[in-house]
Amino acid sequence: MPRSLRGVVCLSFACAAMFGLTACGGDDDEGSAGTTAGGAGATDAAGRTGGTIKTAYTSFPDYLDPALSYTQEGWQTMWTVYTPLLTYKHDEGAEGATLVPGLAEAMPEISDDGKTYTLKLRQGLKYSDGTAVKASDFEHTIKRVLNLESGGSSFYLAIAGAEKYVEDGKARADISGIETDDRTGAITINLTEPDGRFPYILTMNFAGLVPGDTPFQNMTKDPPPGVGPYRFENVRVNRGYDLVKVADFDVPDQAVGKLDKIEVDIVKNRRRQTQDTIQNKLDYMSDPPAADQLREVRARYAGKRYKEFVTNSTYYYFLNHRIAPFDDEKARQAVNYAIDKRAIARLFGGLLEPGCNFLPPGMKGYEKIDPCPWGDPTAAPNVERARELVREAGLEGDSVTVFGNDEPESRSLAEYLSDVLNDIGFKAKPRIVEASVYFTTIGNQKTRAQLGVTNWFQDFPHPGNFMFLVDGDSIQSTNNQNFGNVDDPQVNRLLDAANRNADIDEVADEYAQADRLIVEGAHVAPYGHRKLTVFYSERIDFENCTVWHPVYNLDFTNLCLK
Amino acid sequence: MGRFVVRRVAGMLVVMFAVSVLTFLIFNVIPNGDPADRMAGRNSTPVQIAAIEREWGFDKPIYTQYLTTMEKVFTGDLISYANQTSVVEEIKRGIPRTFALAIGAALIWLAMGTALGLYTAMRAGRFSDTLVTVLALIGISMPVFWLGALASYYLGFKLGVFPNGGYAEIGEAGLWEWVKHMILPWTVLATLFVGVYSRVLRSNILDTINDDYVRTARAKGLTERRVMVHHVLRNSLIPIVTLWGLDFGAVLGGGAILTETVFDLQGVGQYFAESIGQLDVPPVLAVTLFGAFFIVLLNTIVDIVYAALDPRIRLSR
Amino acid sequence: MPIADSSVQPDPSPVLDGGRAEAAPAPGLSPWALALRRLGRNKAALAFGALFVVLVALALAAPLWAQLADTTPARNHLSDTIVVNGKSEQVVTFDGVPIGPTWQRKFFLGADSNGRDVAVRLLYGARNSLFIGITAAIITAFLAVLLGTLAGYFRGWTDAVISRSLDVMWAFPVLLLGVALGVSLALGGLRIGPLRIQGGSLWIPTIIIGVVSVVYLARPIRGQVLSLREKEFVEAARAQGAGPLRIMFSELLPNLASTILVFFPLLVANAILLEAALSFLGAGVQPPEPSWGTMLSDGVVLLSTAPHLTIVPGLMLVLTVLALNVFGDGVRDALDPRAKVRFEH
């Protein structure tokens, strides 16, 4: 998914003012470390259980409805409240990317032709409000995703009958490709074609089970119950919500939360969040510290209360193959030669890991491309070569418009690239589009965007999820995500073959090859991978309870107090 | 008098109507992208967009949309495009904050302006007069958000004297906290106006002091004090109060937007600023009407008060 | 901020002319010559007027400075290092903190978060801000005189329509209107008939500011025209058979000139402040064009680590507006026929 710091869209100073107050108190949570009301639980080897913390987001999650939520903040919460049939291990790195059974008894049995998945629901499961979980709830969950036209619905169109269900538009109709039996708990899913990504698609939060009577509408104001270590309480749209530990959550092999309660408040002002966290008025801040506090936070708290993690994301400039001048390979090469990844890292305050690849380092199928054909990402760029290429291609003086959106980082990136392009011989200027329509604008072929700023965070740890951005087959006339209209037959063939195979390890090489082709062919201009941060108050047990999950970032279930 | 009031109120309603039409047109006629597109998000399909259009009525002609939107405004049903929250609720939440800022600042600048006006009038020509005037001029030459940012940073963050940013609810945090949070915003906003008020008062005083009837009063033997207070001050203050009414209306009407944003008070003005960044029309429309209402209301009140004091005015219009 | 509205006359407060009482006008001098003489005696106004001229000159000299500093307002120097006091410093550190003023040729006033030279941007920004301020004031003056004169002279329906429209504009919170227009037009640009202005052009904020400020001047003009048209010389002109247009041009306008001149510096000051406010809110000048407002809005985000980014453009803005205000005061004192004598004990 693309990342946008929604709260930062708000006008610049609103995000830069100073620290403020504590709102009405929770049960405990003032200043001093280690004082908690609400249950002094047993102290585990891995931090003790119990307690309440306060955390803040810059903006309210897009939805508090599992069928609809499609942002990092949303998913971080969804994961703790709704469990799908399959889920991830609550662990870091490659371990955390491993699929394990969630509400299903075991991993699915996949037929030889790769088109049929058979699972069985665990017995005796109950939602947080006590309702029993039925196998048919799965079909209902998927129906909601499709019927509500969720951002994630395209993933589930792989299921046979799903397209027809969407076309017919009747909420209660049946999806032919899903068969469930409430007595035995059997769930059978038929796909239209084999797709190696499907187990991951089953793991996405969209498929987090909800009761079969959940209405076909956006339930953000009053989210449905789920099966998970936490449940929602006190949801105030746009203001905040609470996550309360589900006392009797006890599903085999499923992580149990440590904290009793997590209070989430929306504080649009990142400066204030940072100050509050420094002063221990806030226990956990998921957004990076405000730009001008970053230095202080790093200096004082790195290793004690603050840590940075490289995410499975890539920030890149797309280059449109269908319009001059980037239909010319030389022009694209010139861009890759000219951008200075160290400079761009500074625009992120250092929260960018410069890189050469298109796939991020944490992804299976990633093989570091070394030496980088465009020059060492951590060294000065070869601007002269870029200028030569532009001259050779006869493109000097050509007009170029760099697209970006009005979020501060995106804007700086667009301005930066314009400057670089001007330096190598083009006549460039940035064009800033309002953030909430940005991706649909550049995704519309009619816009004829020559190049622009974009990024991608994995939806799930499968390289296919990245490569679809450069797959010739994913080009559309509107809502295009392959913004550059990359259409390399070799790459397409590799991806087509690799995507069918459900065993990533077998096809990791193919993805690595595709990655290399994309980079060497200058089909995009990637510059690095985003780093996100964790910043705690003194109360949180930094040593033992910080688990950075590759998909969900900081794992709430592992958070604990000292 | 009664007829005058009725006429003015009727005029007020007409103006409000015109303002609503104008706002609506700005966003719906000036090409700036499809609101349905915006609401549908990144991975939207044409089907999704069409569905949103139907639901919100974007496919209907402009005047129907206008009527529907206005109806929603009055029934309190207005929903924001960006996040489906109730616009009226958000405005209700912001009103006490904007009022707190506006009223506090207005009282301060009125008091300070009057005091300084008096002072400089009495010390006319001396160094202190010049000094105060220069300071006043500097005050009105500063962009309020600049002053606010610097005040917030140096007085708040660096010195730690004031909390910088945010609004403390009296009910939750107590009166003193509330005041602490408001002092800087009040002062910053007041700085804009103090200069003007002191100069206007000063010149009014200096004018009236030389007027014939003051001389007559003196000649009649009234004490200097009585002359000053009863004649000079009273007549000098009338235009001040008029001006104050208009400015107060202007501040409520949106003049506070920058101060609110800088200090993160989450008032109505800030709500407007955040919504407009997302081209979110319902809050923008609602806040504009809210602002226009206060401007027009205060203008009307000032006119009525003035007319009550000076019969010539109500007869000429 | 209020400049003036219809119920308060321009405030004559001859403070800064050194405290001398007004001498009786010398016989034989035209009112303009008199005014000039009065202005000439007002040292403070002259000083600040000169300051304004200096600032304009600096702004015009922007390309010269850019050459000296060997850069442009859009050039980034993110990865560069420069030598300051013998030590090699990074222009922008790895964690995104730009260097402060070096007081050297390059990065005289430091760099911004995009690695651009602040001094160069400041001067180019001054050009843009001053251009917008002055042009918008001209637009305002033109429209206000046009509308005010038509309304005041013809009265009746013309007056009713124009005055009601002005009332509506007056009711519309100025900043809100400016922001609303600014944001919508910034995206799509403006299209009136054959006239087409791109969204990123400087003309958009200029026109917007020019238009929304009309109300400040239109009412006083209208009021003046209303009273002027009853004067004898207008009667005389009419008796001689002059048509309305002729009367407006040859009789009314010259008399309005002093009002316009009195208001003009204030209009420019107001326009500059309004541009800063709009750009700060993202509804004014669009990147990459620099202006004081956009520099301020970029700067406040980094107030803790790079305060020069906020202080420098702000100071320049304050100085310019202050100069205009003081000079404007002086002009008012010089021209306003009702200049009051100061009371001295």
Helix and strand arrangement:
The complex is a heterotrimer of chains A (about 550), B (about 325) and C (about 350).
Chain A: H1 6-9, E1 43-44, E2 47-48, E3 52-57, H2 72-81, E4 86-88, H3 93-96, E5 99-101, E6 109-110, E7 116-120, H4 136-147, H5 153-156, H6 162-168, E8 178-181, E9 186-190, H7 198-203, E10 230-236, E11 240-245, E12 261-266, H8 270-278, E13 284-285, H9 294-301, E14 306-310, E15 313-319, H10 329-338, H11 341-347, E16 352-354, H12 383-392, E17 399-405, H13 408-424, E18 427-433, H14 435-442, E19 451-457, H15 464-467, H16 489-500, H17 504-520, E20 524-536, H18 542-545, E21 548-549, E22 553-554
Parallel strand pairs in A: 3-12, 3-13, 17-18, 17-19
Antiparallel strand pairs in A: 1-2, 4-5, 6-7, 7-9, 8-9, 10-11, 11-12, 13-20, 14-20, 15-19, 15-20, 16-20, 21-22
Helix pairs in contact in A: 10-12, 16-17
Chain B: H1 2-29, H2 35-40, H3 46-56, H4 62-75, H5 87-122, H6 127-141, H7 144-158, H8 170-173, H9 175-209, H10 212-220, H11 224-255, H12 257-263, H13 268-277, H14 281-309, H15 311-316
Helix pairs in contact in B: 1-14, 5-6, 5-9, 5-11, 6-9, 7-9, 7-12, 9-11, 11-14, 12-13, 13-14
Chain C: H1 31-41, H2 43-60, H3 62-69, E1 81-84, E2 87-90, H4 118-154, H5 156-171, H6 174-188, E3 190-192, E4 195-197, H7 203-212, H8 214-228, H9 232-239, H10 244-280, H11 292-300, H12 308-335
Antiparallel strand pairs in C: 1-2, 3-4
Helix pairs in contact in C: 1-12, 2-4, 2-12, 3-4, 4-5, 4-7, 4-8, 4-10, 5-8, 6-7, 7-10, 8-10, 9-10, 10-11, 10-12, 11-12
